[in-house]
Model the fold of this input.
Amino acid sequence: MADSGNQSSDMQNITDVPTCPIFPDHPNQCTIIINVRRVFASISLIGCIFIILVIWLFRKYIAFSQRLILYMSFAALNISISYLMGELHPDGPLCDFQAFWMSFFDWSVLLWVSCITLNLFINVVWGKTTEKYEWLYHLVSWGVSLFMSLLPFIGNHYGPAGAWCWIKDNWRWRVGVWYGPLFGMLFIMVVAYIYISCVLSRKAATWEGTYDPDTERKKSMLKEDIKPLMAYPFVYLATSLFPLINRIQNAVHSGHPVFALVLLASISSPSQGAINAIVFGLDRETFRRLTPSQIKMAWSHHTNRKVVHEFPIPLRSRNMHLLDTEQHVPLLR
Done:
């Protein structure tokens, strides 16, 4: 009787341990996928922290384009945290929280990238900035994300989904809440990105020639507002490629996932923050500042209220040979 009791207890413990729903015959493959996601999510987390710290340290947030990168990086940082949480949780509050967290910040990243694309489109096509609508960007990006991530709580559709927690195996909900809007917005971004590139190429060709103040103003806008943002929508599109292929394969061959595609999607999806950090660091203006002396000076501006600066002040001398010479006089600011 004791042996049968132990056996029933062991069976209960076995049933409590989550299995690998997508690869039931090879449960170690789920472990590989989870570990790979965590490795790349950790790298992306570091990359997002790097972007946020550099924008804060050098006060780059003064520029609207840099604030857009900051908001996107904050959302990408949190989606990296959700990937780090991802494992085979049993159905329950912890699983629901992880699924909600992932849905909310997946939507946030998508919407902030869409805002960047919209801002680029308006800047390039009409030569106007959308900075005055920054509040609207926040309202849409965070508000829509919250609304869409709360919807699956209706009918308890959050739960174990493959190697982690998300919307349970219900394709109507998955397509309606995420994949349908995602594919539609990706298509729009691809079209917008191609059009933006064509317009920029055409404008660059017409800017060659004599000096013109309006042309110089447009070149300055290209350098400050457009060029720093051009790569980020492309990074999002590139990192969405393998997840898109994997989901198409899942839809065509339901119940027969391909391990290689799932693995590539698990590498691609969490890598956005890391690739963004590379793009951000390779920006010429940012790269020029990433020196020990520049970092030390920027840090002192944040920690010291009174910093001694040198400004050139023209001082007139009675001697003719020193007339109108400039001397550097230290001033306190």
In short: The chain has one domain: 23-290. Residues 1-17, 307-333 have pLDDT under 50 and may be disordered.
